[in-house]
Amino acid sequence: MRPLTDAGAVASILPASGAERERAERELEANGVRLPLMYRAGAGAAFGGSGIPLLVVRDPRTGPVAAMALVVRRKLPPTGLRTVYVPFFGQAIADGATDAAIGALIALVGRRPQVLRLSVALFEPDPTRAASLKHALEQRGFHRAPLQNAYERTLRLALTPDETALFAGLHASARRNIREVAKRPVRVAPVTDERLARRMDEMLAVALARTGGIHRPSARNWPAVMRLSARHPELSRLVGVWRTDREGANALIGFAWGCRHGDHAVYSDSASTRQDDIRIAVTYPMLWDLITWAKGTGAAWFDLGGVTTGDGAGDDPLAGISDFKRFFTTDLIEVGEEWQLAPLSLSARAAQWAHGTWLRLRGG
Q1: Sequence-distant (≥ 6) Cβ neighbours of residue 329 within 8 angstroms
Q2: Beta bridge partners of residue 123, listed in sequence order
Q3: pTM of the model
Q4: How many angstroms separate the CA atoms of 187 and 204, rounded?
Q5: DSSP secondary structure letter of residue 95
Q6: What is the per-residue pLDDT across 172-197, written as a single tens digit (0 to 9) for each?
């Protein structure tokens, strides 16, 4: 498409749900714009929020060509100062619309003096397109920032082979652990009972503690994830491993959430409990279930959800998880960077100074 300029673009903020939002999503998809799950109407609740507004940029000639989810975060006392974060930046921007999309984003937050900082988490597996996005951000005054909200690199599994070939391409240990399900008193099935949310949070807290992570229960709303998966099984799948020799919540011994983001799906969250009486690695069948689900939805590739470069011999707390993921693929790619624009206005700078003074007076 012919490059869209700031002057020629029409930008609008659409609410978290409603007919207008859903119509815009259909129009974006008709124009070939890929939408991450977090950008979808009604999906915000699953990610722990009440709803995520969408900034849509339109080309008067062709319709909507870009979308950016606006995640508003934290108030900084005593000023009420906020930050705005855009996840998956670039995934929902058509070629030729990058400059106009960035211009619309800057203009939007620039009119809001309560916004101190604008952060965008770039997600783009194509090196050429990633370089173009980064150049455009730099030209508009953004600077590279420490990665806080996403991962820098991940493992990619191409989903073009048929399921038999996909399975054959896995490491022998992965294939063996997946087959082990048929030999043990367990089954793999979707998680649909909202009463299991507490059990899932408990498992996730234990799993994160093992790797030094911080459990934030508000980050995921599991009942909302279940409802989203029921409404849109092509976009979200929450799968669990169950003991067939147990009843109640304790029968659930592991779960994993898969999300569809445009042309690919991602291994988003998972947790499991150790089983001393049966030998089974429950994460393998859960991940394989999500891979086959993603292929069935038409996804081109599967994102293993981030990986570190360390190994078990070092001090990397995530080395074990990363090594587990390498049993499924060894295609390591760079996907993420974080860029920031701050401060945005004189009033924001004044509010930043006030917050710093407040912290010093409190001894913070």
Answers
A1: 155, 156, 157, 169, 304
A2: 336
A3: 0.88
A4: 20
A5: T
A6: 999 999 999 989 999 999 999 999 99
